[in-house]
């Protein structure tokens, strides 16, 4: 498996919107790659995302000009922003929220060597749980470099594992993250602390604390997850 070489100037184009390339790879000859920009099978994929609150000022300014009833605004912003960048670099933009769903988590693990945390979020040795993948760029070319570096899994080195003991819905365990229990708690009226201040289990993780999302961004994500109206 070879890593994808990032096109020249792509990093600058992404950084202008608070985004960054989150690794990539060349598809193997014998795997069923999704279609690239021409409709033929893609040769390589580059993941696009962010760490910390780098996207928040850009998204917030964009959101202020949108209709108050706009559904899924962060997905809309991602589609508009990453789609425009894809056009500049002769790539096809794809997104984790679009059907038919593509294996974004497997792609991310393959591109960056990450593993899931007990919350289900991939944990990064520097960014901790404070990062996300907003889309990917599919290219037709198969330029290649060395394999991605293997990264240490922070959860394996964490002895206290505070994330397992603070969730008021008991949704976090070493076995799985109970998505339904988390959602039910947020919608029950008892999840005010999580809705207003962010996921308590996520905040308990000591890895990457300097990359924690801004309060406004945390509230936005929690309210969006719960299906509640988003304040502007």
Write a structural description.
This is 4Fe-4S ferredoxin-type domain-containing protein. It comes from Nitratireductor arenosus. The chain is globular. The protein has one domain. By secondary structure, it is of the alpha+beta class. A hairpin with a 5-residue loop joins strand 4 and strand 5. The strands form 2 sheets. Strands 1-2-6-3 form a 4-stranded antiparallel sheet, with helices on both faces. It has a two-stranded antiparallel sheet with strand order 4-5.
Q: What does this entry show, briefly?
A:
With 232 residues, the protein is an alpha+beta fold.
SSE layout and pairing:
Blueprint: H1 10-15, E1 20-26, E2 44-51, H2 56-64, H3 73-88, E3 92-94, H4 104-112, E4 115-116, E5 122-123, E6 131-139, H5 179-187, H6 192-197, H7 200-204, H8 215-226
Antiparallel strand pairs: 1-2, 2-6, 3-6, 4-5
Structural class: alpha+beta
- Percent in helix: 25-40%
Supply Rg. Answer: 18 Å
Number of helical regions: 8
Strand content: 5-15%
The strand order across the widest sheet is 1-2-6-3
The low-confidence runs, each spanning 5 or more residues with pLDDT under 50, are none
Which whole number gives the mean pLDDT? 92
Total E-strand runs: 6
Order of helices and strands: HEEHHEHEEEHHHH
Shape: globular
Largest β-sheet summary: 4 strands, antiparallel
The number of domains is 1
The first-to-last residue Cα distance is 44 Å
């Amino acid at each position: 498996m070879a890593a994808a070489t990032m096109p020249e100037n792509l990093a600058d184009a992404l950084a202008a919107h608070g985004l960054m390339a989150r690794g990539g790879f060349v598809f193997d000859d014998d795997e069923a790659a999704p279609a690239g920009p021409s409709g033929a099978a893609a040769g390589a994929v580059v993941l696009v995302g962010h760490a910390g609150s780098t996207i928040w000022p850009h998204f917030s300014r964009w959101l202020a000009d949108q209709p108050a009833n706009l559904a899924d605004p962060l997905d809309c912003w991602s589609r508009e922003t990453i789609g425009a960048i894809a056009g500049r670099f002769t790539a096809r933009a794809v997104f984790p929220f679009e059907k038919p769903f593509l294996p974004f988590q497997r792609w991310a693990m393959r591109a960056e060597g990450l593993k899931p945390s007990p919350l289900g979020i991939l944990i990064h040795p520097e960014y901790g749980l404070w990062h996300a993948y907003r889309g990917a760029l599919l290219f037709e070319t198969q330029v290649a470099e060395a394999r991605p570096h293997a990264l240490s899994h922070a959860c394996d080195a964490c002895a206290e594992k505070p994330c397992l003991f603070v969730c008021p819905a008991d949704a976090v365990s070493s076995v799985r993250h109970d998505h339904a229990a988390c959602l039910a708690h947020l919608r029950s009226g008892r999840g005010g602390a999580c809705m207003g201040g962010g996921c308590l289990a996520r905040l308990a993780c000591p890895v990457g604390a300097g990359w924690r999302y801004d309060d406004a961004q945390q509230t936005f994500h929690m309210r969006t997850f719960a299906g509640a109206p988003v304040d502007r």
